[in-house]
């Protein structure tokens, strides 16, 4: 066959492309930033597989800009959303090995983190999860971290035989007799290590804008939290059922976060503090959700930008005689009057759109909503709290 016919082959009257033309892939012609943006959509396992395609892709995958998320909750899809789940010791050891390998992987890639998600018991002296997270923050670029989702009260997985990891050989009788004391010590250890980690985060990641975590409401923790001046979205869950929240502490926190737009609070007011009310002030807050709180009553609000409030009155099964109930409730103003004075731009209450004239005059639908949210004498007439 002539040389000209070797280069061209007709298929249905059309020219077949050369072998060299078939091998051309336009992805490599894109700017590096575009290539990184495309690869960023891949799951982490697929990114590692992509590194095996060719040398240029291998160099791309090694870029720290491709590793923006440190997510310690990805291991085991069947355990997603579960914390403190008991598993076999062998499974726990495999998961623990994965945690350490994953941390080393992020450090070796020079990760440039934007998101950190983790669930570790920071009071665990054996596994020292707090030191692992501190090492990660010291070893990667996290100055631009913007999203923090941290549960420091439970480890995602726990071994069935905790004795192997606690270093304790006490008898079962002595363990039972000192369980309450031991729990208090554990809680203090958790708080101390949490404060150490929060201080490191405040120093290393000052640009966090979205934060979700458990909170102990101590003065030290509040002081550290208020250093995140760029916070826009904040969700604080309760740390311990016996840990109360000082009203002045809550007010200090909201006053000290100038960029805060959304606040979700899970506050459990202990029975000993029943009757305490709270003041909340913020020039920037637009969304407030306290529907998961128990016994949280506002006596005053100063939220000029607030547009939506979610609040729910929760019965905790406390039996009060009429005299005690009236004595407590007489201290509290009606939520309607609190909102009239302190939330002039409010547009929605408990997912219900308010009429433009709600401040001038209440109406039937609004009264029904207040029955679900207000603790005053008018909207709560029951012996069962």
What's the short version?
The chain is an alpha/beta fold. The chain has 15 helices and 16 strands.
Low-confidence stretches: 4-12, 167-176
> For the residues shown, what is the average pLDDT?
82
Number of helices: 15
- The main sheet orders its strands as 3-5-6-8-9-10-12-14-15-16
Strand content: 15-25%
Helix percentage range: 25-40%
| Protein structure class | alpha/beta
According to DSSP, the number of beta strands is 16
Please report the distance between the alpha carbons of the first and last residues. 96 Å
Radius of gyration: 28 Å
Shape call: globular
Largest sheet, in brief, is: 10 strands, mixed
Domain F-box: 24-70
InterPro entries: F-box-like_dom_sf (IPR036047), F-box_dom (IPR001810), FBXO4 (IPR039588), LRR_dom_sf (IPR032675)
GO cellular component, one term: SCF ubiquitin ligase complex
Protein name: F-box domain-containing protein
């Amino acid at each position: 066959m002539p040389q000209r016919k070797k280069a061209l082959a007709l298929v249905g009257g059309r020219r077949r492309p050369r072998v060299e033309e078939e091998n051309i892939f336009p992805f490599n012609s894109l700017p590096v930033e575009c290539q990184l943006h495309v690869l960023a959509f891949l799951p982490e396992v697929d990114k590692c597989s992509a590194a095996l395609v060719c040398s240029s892709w291998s160099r791309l995958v090694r870029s720290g800009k491709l590793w923006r998320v440190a997510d310690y909750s990805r291991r085991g899809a069947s355990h997603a959303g579960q914390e403190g789940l008991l598993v076999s010791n062998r499974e726990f050891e495999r998961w623990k090995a994965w945690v350490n390998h994953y941390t080393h992987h992020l450090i070796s890639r020079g990760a440039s983190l934007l998101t950190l998600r983790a669930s570790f018991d920071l009071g665990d002296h054996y596994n020292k999860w707090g030191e692992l997270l501190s090492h990660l923050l010291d070893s990667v670029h996290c100055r631009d971290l913007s999203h923090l989702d941290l549960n420091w009260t439970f480890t995602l997985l726990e071994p069935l035989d905790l004795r192997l990891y606690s270093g304790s050989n006490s008898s079962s009788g002595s363990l039972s007799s000192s369980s309450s004391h031991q729990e208090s010590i554990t809680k203090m250890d958790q708080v101390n290590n949490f404060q150490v980690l929060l201080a490191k985060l405040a120093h290393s990641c000052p640009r966090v804008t979205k934060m979700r975590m458990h909170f102990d409401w101590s003065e030290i923790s509040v002081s550290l939290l208020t250093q995140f001046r760029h916070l826009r979205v904040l969700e604080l869950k309760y740390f311990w059922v016996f840990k109360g929240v000082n009203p002045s502490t809550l007010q200090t926190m909201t006053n000290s976060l100038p960029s805060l737009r959304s606040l979700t609070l899970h506050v459990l007011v202990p029975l000993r503090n029943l009757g305490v009310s709270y003041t909340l002030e913020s020039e920037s807050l637009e969304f407030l959700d306290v529907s998961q709180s128990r016994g949280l009553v506002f006596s005053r609000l100063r939220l000029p930008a607030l547009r939506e409030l979610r609040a729910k009155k929760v019965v905790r099964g406390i039996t009060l005689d009429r005299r005690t109930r009236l004595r407590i409730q007489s201290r509290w103003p009606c939520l309607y009057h609190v909102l009239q004075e302190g939330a002039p731009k409010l547009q929605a209450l408990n997912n219900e759109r308010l009429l433009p004239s709600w401040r001038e005059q209440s109406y039937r639908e609004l009264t029904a909503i207040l029955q679900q949210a207000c603790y005053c004498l008018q909207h709560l007439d029951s012996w069962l709290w």
